[in-house]
Amino acid sequence: MLSIAELRCFCSQDKELLMQAFCTYARPLLEYCTPVWSPHYQYRIFKIENVQRAYTKRLAGMKNLNYLERLKALGISSLGQRWLERDLILCYSLFHGICEILLPFKLGVSVTRGNSCKLVKTSCNTNAAKYFYTNRIVLA
Q1: What b/e readout covers 2-31, taking b as 16+ CB neighbours within 10 angstroms?
Q2: What is the mean predicted confidence (pLDDT) over 16-39?
């Protein structure tokens, strides 16, 4: 957790500057390689999100706002939302040939309706496979 004294090490108490510092130095560490290691347990998501939650609460004028109001006031999104965006961006890049990584996507074959690029969720016995990237992005 951040203390008030840790934020006092900055010469400025400007919210925009402090958020820019957080987005530059801390958030990339929290978002690094999210398609690979993205947590699926709620308590782990809450612990990682708590870093951003605690930082935004320590900013001037943000103490009495709840977390969603702070995010809206600062113009940023939650880490969970950003993880979902990163997953979808990677999915788009894989299907359109922008990124060339061999992942075991299973495409659904439809002869009557839709298109040929439908993803199919595979059945799994282990949590490692169940929450792997290729199964996590399918909304079925």
Answers
A1: eeeeeeeeeeeeeeeebbeebeeeebeeee
A2: 85
Its pTM stands at: 0.71
Residue 119, beta-bridge partner list: 107
Q: What is the DSSP string of the chain?
A: ---HHHHTTSS---HHHHHHHHHHHTHHHHHTTHHHH---SHHHHHHHHHHHHHHHHTSTT-TTS-HHHHHHHHT---HHHHHHHHHHHHHHHHHTTSS-------EEP-SSSS-S-EE-PPP-SSHHHHTSHHHHS---
Phi, psi of 39 (to 5 degrees): -75, 150
Average pLDDT over residues 74-81: 90
Tell me the average pLDDT of the chain. Answer: 79
